[in-house]
Design brief:
The chain has about 240 residues and is α/β, with parallel strands linked by helices. It has 10 helices and 5 strands. Helix 8 links the parallel strand 3 and strand 4. The mean pLDDT is about 85.
Length: about 240
């Protein structure tokens, strides 16, 4: 009797991969963004309430993380706990660097750890050290200067900085509809739209109606209209059961 194949390890997903049912098509759509053939494509995930969008993105992250040698997955969820736009921006930069370095080291334990930015710099591969160091130095400078706009722009521009050094990422932003409720001088909705047009594959996910408002109100960000729209409804009764 042949030995059983080991179960795929969970990293940030809540459900085991074999228990994640009814979303094969959407999972394939998102993970396909990691292919070099996908180019600069992006997806706007328009989710019905309680349709499981967050778990879909988490499962996508895990599957892409397990695929060695491909694009680096990054998962980030906006939350009202951040209160201010700068707090969300800081957390995004920390999340981006943590997950990128973890993937490139093939160290899934780092994803759920909370190393400081300086500790992450020491963990970065030699080929990544220069751009990671420059990004952290620019972040510290913007923090010291108290320039909120520069800080938010820098943090959400991290994927573009990585791409310029040959580090391809697939960034999945969850609960994007929450971003506009965070206080601060900078509209995070526009910052997210800027990031989505930076040239790296992106997934922007949130409640359907609020996401459509964001896209329609993006104004100068006409590029958002060209992104694929992926509708996520509640599971069929058989799958939910």
């Amino acid at each position: 009797m042949p030995p059983k194949s080991p179960r795929p390890r969970r990293i940030i997903a809540h459900a085991p991969p074999e228990s994640f049912v009814g979303r094969a098509e959407q999972l394939r759509e998102i993970t396909s963004l990691a292919s070099p053939k996908a180019g600069r494509q992006g997806v706007i995930l328009l989710a019905a309430p309680r349709s499981g969008a967050s778990e879909l993105l988490r499962q996508s992250f895990d599957e892409l993380f397990r695929q060695r040698g491909g694009a680096t997955p990054v998962y980030f969820a906006f939350t009202r706990d951040d209160a201010a736009s700068t707090a969300a921006a800081r957390r995004f930069l920390h999340t981006f660097l943590t997950q990128t370095i973890a993937h490139r080291r093939d160290d899934s334990s780092l994803v759920t750890a909370s190393p400081t930015l300086r500790a992450l710099l020491e963990l970065a591969a030699p080929s990544d050290y220069e751009w990671v160091e420059r990004l952290i130095q620019n972040f510290e400078r913007a923090t010291d200067e108290g320039d909120e706009r520069a800080l938010v722009r820098l943090c959400f521009g991290a994927p573009q900085q990585a791409a310029a050094r040959g580090v391809r990422t697939v960034v999945m932003l969850d609960d994007v509809h929450v971003a506009e409720s965070l206080r601060g001088e900078v509209s995070l909705g526009h910052s997210v739209a800027d990031a989505a047009e930076s040239g790296s594959p992106f997934v922007l996910a949130g409640l359907r109606r609020r996401m459509l408002d964001l896209v329609n109100g993006a104004g100068q960000h006409a590029g958002l209209d060209s992104l694929r729209k992926l509708h996520l409804d509640k599971l069929k009764e058989s799958d939910a059961r």
